[in-house]
Amino acid sequence: MMNNTHNNLRKPITRLAFVLCVPLLWAATCQTSTAPILPAQAEQPLPLDTTSTYTIIAAADSNDLSVAARVYTKDELLGRFEPAKHPDFEVIQKKHTTKDGIYLQRAAYADFQRMWEAAKAAGVDLSILSATRNFNYQKGIWEKKWLREKYKGMSDRDKVADIMKFSSMPGTSRHHWGTDVDFNSVELAYWQSATGKKVYAWLVQHAATFGYYQTYTDKANGRSGYEEEKWHWSYIPIAREMHRQFKNTIQYSDITGFSGCKEAEGLQVFAVFVDGIAPDLLPK
Q1: Which of 128, 132, 142, 233 lies 20 to 30 Å (CA to CA) from residue 92?
Q2: Which H helix or E strand runs over 53?
């Protein structure tokens, strides 16, 4: 899996220097939905609050993959913003994805493009299947699964536990941060095919050069939370710091506004799932 890669963390080229205008506006209550809210039906995005400005501070240790230290708002950490209107997000070009109108943070996308070129030169095709998913989008995925026929008669806690084998609660997904991507396919059969094995082997060997690491590795080493996802890779130079601030800032009372949200604390979602990543990638 990723042990050799994680033991040889390398410095990505991208370094951040920019001023971010961030959203500060949100109100939500914990409620149970009666109909699925699909991504196309998501609530209207919140406008950015351009009155608050946070300045990036370069990391003291240039070899540390957490290359920037700045204050992220709760809205950013929880995905309660619209990436299309966020000054630090960039739309992904069609040659890099099969989807329309999906976004990454600019630094993450810049290093992805370098990685894409290197993979292409090696005969490996990388396509971003999913990137930034804000709270509303993740809620749409969640609510659709919540109403599956197989969950009829089940307790809320059992529903949540089953959904979270592969899907994050809204507000807790790393995809909110604009640092994480799903490559090529989320079907296990693809990654077991000759093509999928070739792509995965290249990523394991080379992705760290560009700041990307597999988040949900094999659980044989005791990792908790989601099942292994060979398709999910994270841009650690930004994601590690966002993860650290999530741990220090977000409370269970902030995880609200969707079916089953009251189960988050009882299931210890922060410790089991948010922190349930490859150990070497956890915030220091």
Answers
A1: 142
A2: strand 53-55
